[in-house]
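Per your request, structure below.
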């Protein structure tokens, strides 16, 4: 039975469970707090064109040929209702600037012309990923519109189409004692959004180069029950996508959204996590943030505080229509608090808000180094869009300029008693009205528990409010795009060209002798097909080839721009020479370097440098004598240091031709034992 989408199925909030550092938590502890999480993985596809036009995909530009200024407004759903997220974004009154570069964007992206037919290459890749995930494919692609009023898409909506539903893949992580199936809820094909350049006050700026790039969104069921289990699932989904060899790599090409809840709470989405390394700490901190919000809720209930007590009408100016807000300017005009004085000198407005029954709760910790007051400040920051920092303080927080006398006067003006908390904020008049309402709205939500939010993940693994979590009214059919039948012949064609599933491929590599970690890495590496086509012998040869490809090919790709993968014909003779005892195993990395660095060099010349020769024994004796004489200049160095230097000199000349152990024995005889040389 699938748990409710936005509510944790366990209602027994573990508010007595102590806050613990990440390193002190165990799986049973996460079970105690009812931790539950799921993934939404967005992966850019490597296609020639964008999804609904024929502009090139995958370009990243800095040139600006034109700018477009837009404002967004919400539209009604099919049922005549507005989506809450759209209404929230509308309150920000954002001016949205798009920076255009003529070769990477067209009038479709600017919503000035209808969409082209959906890109067939992108559909094929999405079908391939869906089949690797064992999803049930749809019979027709129906394009939907998903509202985005944050400005990241100029049309105000993203076109998206469901590709497959309800699949499972093997989820085997021995180090976490996991051996089960990971359930995949769905996979969609959609267009990417703009890149944000800046966001200050009521103006946000985007680049449009990646806008419209095809990407897939893979959604798991919310059944990942610890932070490390979540991280392992993210790794697995990344491996599935990379196994196709048809997805983009690099910064921003893959982004994870994480859904997290704890017992007694509801789903919160952490947005835009760009790497897997920080996932465990991020969701750990979010779990305890939610647990602390539940503690705040429980304390408010004990005090008899209800959401209705901080309700404010959505009309007029807050200080005119509610006794919970007053103009604080007359009281604070003589304050020495620098931010407030500067605000008032700019002609801005300062106000005070009374939160009945909230005394002491604004200081309640929610995240490391962060208190509940940040929950209020985040709403003001995102929705009222103040440009100056700081813009908010509260009684008991900062007494550097707002003195006890000021707070006492504000309490009298608001009719507050010792059980109430006071917040002071300042901004331009229109923004101040929005800010006052948002403070009261967020305080009301505190009495009800955990608000359904999308939150931005920060580099320190904390998070901040980004927007209200979207609801079902966000989606509606796209009338510009006809359904696309997914024919059996199309599916069969995609299946015929599919690569092996990464878990099957990794198992095959383990059977060749590779360690589990190396086998899993090779299964999704760009050179996996090259490895298979070379077909090395099981055991040491296969292990050394996998290691050499993984370490040397990325080096050459960084060294040479647009480097191409070497052909099997270029690598296979090197492996055969080792298998036929013409070249020693340890020579493979250097031989591979030589073959890849200069593709025009004949392979026979490369092999001649590393093949054993009949004169090697005599050549080695003479060279060691030469090295021993040179080593006399290293007197005073330790014997181990001299021996390591000498081995480097010898093996750089004889690698692949002589046994390193034989060379070492000859060197020790010529130089003397390391311990004796160190004594000298």
């Amino acid at each position: 039975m699938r748990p409710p989408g936005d509510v944790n199925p366990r209602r027994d909030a573990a508010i007595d469970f102590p806050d613990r550092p990440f390193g002190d938590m165990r799986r049973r502890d996460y079970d105690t707090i009812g931790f539950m999480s799921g993934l939404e993985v967005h992966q850019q596809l490597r296609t020639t064109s964008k999804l609904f036009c024929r502009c090139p995909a995958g370009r990243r530009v800095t040139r600006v040929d034109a700018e477009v200024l837009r404002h967004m407004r919400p539209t009604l759903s099919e049922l005549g209702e507005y989506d809450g997220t759209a209404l929230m974004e509308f309150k920000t009154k954002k001016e949205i600037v798009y920076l255009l570069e003529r070769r990477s964007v067209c009038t479709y992206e600017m919503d000035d012309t209808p969409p082209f037919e959906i890109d067939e290459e992108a559909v094929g890749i999405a079908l391939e990923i869906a089949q690797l995930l064992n999803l049930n494919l749809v019979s027709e692609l129906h394009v939907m519109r998903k509202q985005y009023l944050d400005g990241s898409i100029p049309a105000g909506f993203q076109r998206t189409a469901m590709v497959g539903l309800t699949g499972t893949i093997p989820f085997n992580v021995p180090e976490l004692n996991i051996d089960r199936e990971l359930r995949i809820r769905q996979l969609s094909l959609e267009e990417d959004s703009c890149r944000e350049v800046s966001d200050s006050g009521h103006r946000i700026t985007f680049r449009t180069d990646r806008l419209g790039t095809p990407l897939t969104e893979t959604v798991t069921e919310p059944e990942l029950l610890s932070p490390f289990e979540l991280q392992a699932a993210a790794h697995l989904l990344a491996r599935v996508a990379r196994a196709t060899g048809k997805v983009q790599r690099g910064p921003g090409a893959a982004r994870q959204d994480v859904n997290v809840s704890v017992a007694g709470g509801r789903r919160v989405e952490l947005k835009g996590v760009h790497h897997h390394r920080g996932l465990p700490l991020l969701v750990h901190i979010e779990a305890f943030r939610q647990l602390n919000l539940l503690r705040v809720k429980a304390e408010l209930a004990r005090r008899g505080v209800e959401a209705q007590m901080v309700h404010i009408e959505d009309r007029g100016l807050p200080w005119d229509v509610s006794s919970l807000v007053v103009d604080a300017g007359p009281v604070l005009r003589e304050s020495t608090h620098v931010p407030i004085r500067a605000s008032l000198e700019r002609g801005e407005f300062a106000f005070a808000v009374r939160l009945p029954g909230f005394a002491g709760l604004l200081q309640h910790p929610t995240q490391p180094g962060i208190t509940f007051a940040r929950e209020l400040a985040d709403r003001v920051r995102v929705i009222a869009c103040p440009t100056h920092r700081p813009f908010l303080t509260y009684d008991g927080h900062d007494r550097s300029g707002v003195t006890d006398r000021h707070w006492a006067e504000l309490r009298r003006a608001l009719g507050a008693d010792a059980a109430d908390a006071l917040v002071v904020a300042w901004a331009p008049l229109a923004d101040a009205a929005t800010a006052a309402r948002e403070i009261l709205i967020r305080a009301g939500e505190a009495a009800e528990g955990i608000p359904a939010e999308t939150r931005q993940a920060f580099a320190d693994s904390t998070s901040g409010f980004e927007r209200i979590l979207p609801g079902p009214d966000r989606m509606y059919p796209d009338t510009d795009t006809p359904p696309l039948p997914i024919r059996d012949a199309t599916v069969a064609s995609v299946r015929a060209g599919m690569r092996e599933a990464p878990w099957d491929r990794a198992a095959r590599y383990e059977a060749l002798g590779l360690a589990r970690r190396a086998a899993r890495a090779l299964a999704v590496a760009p050179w996996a097909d090259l490895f298979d086509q070379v077909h090395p012998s099981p055991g040491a040869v296969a292990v050394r080839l996998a290691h050499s490809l993984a370490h040397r090919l990325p080096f050459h790709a960084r060294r040479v721009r647009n480097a191409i993968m070497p052909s099997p014909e270029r690598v296979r003779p090197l492996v055969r020479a080792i298998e036929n005892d013409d070249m020693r195993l340890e020579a493979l990395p250097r031989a591979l370097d030589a073959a890849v660095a200069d593709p025009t060099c004949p392979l026979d010349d490369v092999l001649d440098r590393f093949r054993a020769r009949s004169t090697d024994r005599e050549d080695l004796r003479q060279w060691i004598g030469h090295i021993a004489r040179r080593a006399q200049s290293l007197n005073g160095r330790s014997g181990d240091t001299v021996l390591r230097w000498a081995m480097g000199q010898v093996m750089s000349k004889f690698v692949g031709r002589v046994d390193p152990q034989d060379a070492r024995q000859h060197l020790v005889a010529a130089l003397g034992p390391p311990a004796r040389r160190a004594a000298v």
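Residues 675-680 have pLDDT under 50 and may be disordered.

Regards,
D.
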